[in-house]
Structure formats: structure tokens, C-alpha cells
Amino acid sequence: MNNKDDNPLKNSVEIDTTNIKIETDRLILRAWTQDDLQDFYNYSSVPGVGEAAGWFHHESIEHSQQILGMFLKSKETLALYHKKDKKVIGSAGLHATSWASADERFKYLKSAEIGYVLSKAYWGKGLMTEAARALIAYTFDNLGVELMVCSHFIENNNSRRVIEKCGFSFVENGEYYSSQMDKTFASMRYILLKG
Fold first, then answer.
1. Residues of the chain predicted below pLDDT 50
2. Would you say 96 and 90 are in contact if contact means Cβ atoms under 8 Å apart?
3. Is residue 193 part of a domain?
């Protein structure tokens, strides 16, 4: 793709989480550090956590180290630090979105896709909604984003509830291919326009 107009990601906003720090009542969203490795492994090694997001749970701390290295290099993912428990309990990322950027309805809007993972021990406490709302507000207010998109696997009702509570509107069914799992998942796609 030599022609910039042919690039479906041209309207995706470049993200650098290095200096982002967002505080909510119970959480701090901040850049990952090497010191977060043990916390990351602790929640990523629990069966069902990664599988809900398209990756296998981690079977070794070395695997977690590889993924943490990717987080540190890409600067697209924030750690969710639980203030009371003094540990990282999940992640929230901002990424380029290929499906919305290629859609005639949205391709001229500056966009970012939000994705998230939360430790199974903290499911059902409203923490992911708290984190997502704060990150969405920050993204709209500070990063020039006009459109946020999000998706979930059809069977992932926990993620669906977070998306709905954050005000996203359903757009269409889609597919997500996980190269790690070598599997295609049926998904649901949502948008949220800057108000």
C-alpha cells in the first residue's frame, strides 16, 4: 500500500501510553513496568481469562515476560493497578481499528479501538467498567479521537455488559481471527462517537 489513501488504518490515532496516568476511585491506569511481571503472570495464568480475549492463558512466567516485553515496546496497553490491593489486576489497550477504518460510515473519523482484560478474581465488581469509562473519556479529551470502537466474542457476556454500560452502540456482527489460538471467533462490533 504505497498510496496513503489506500491505507485502512490512516485515521487510527497513534497511541503512546508512556506518560498516561488516569486515576479512578479504585484504580490507576498507567504504563506497564518490568516490576509488574509477577502480577501479570498471576492473573494471566488463570484459565478462562485470556481465552475470553483470544489468547491462551499463560503456562509460564517466561511467556508472561514475552508478552510484557511486547506491551513495553508497543506502548498501546495500560496496566490496571488496584489501589487498595496494591497490585496490577488487568490491562486496557488502545489500538488501531481495521474494521471501522475500512467502513464507509466511519473511515473519515479519527478512531481508536479499546480492548481489555481483567483478573478473574475481580470480575463482577464494576472495575472494568470504571476503567473503561475513564480511558474512553481520556481518549476523547486528550488524543484527538472522534470515534471509539470495541468488540467482543459473541459468548462473552461479561465484556458485552461493560461495553453497554460505557454507552457503545451495536453496529454489526463480525469475525476475529486469533493467530495465537489459530481460531476464528464470531464477534459483535460496537461504536461510540465523541459527544
1. 1-8
2. no
3. no
Q: Which amino acid is at 92?
A: A
CA distances from 32 to 9, 39, 167, 175 (A): 25, 11, 27, 29
93 CA to centre of own chain: 4
Q: 3-state class of 11 per DSSP? A: coil
Residue with cell 496497553: 77
What pLDDT shows up at residue 10? 57
Q: What is the CATH number of the domain that holds 55?
A: 3.40.630.30
Per DSSP, helices labelled H in 82-179 are 98-101, 127-142, 157-165
Tell me the C-alpha to C-alpha distance, in Å, between residue 127 and each of 119, 131, 146, 160: 10, 6, 25, 14
Number of domains in the chain: 1
Domain of 117, in residue numbers: 4-144
67 within a domain of the structure (yes/no): yes
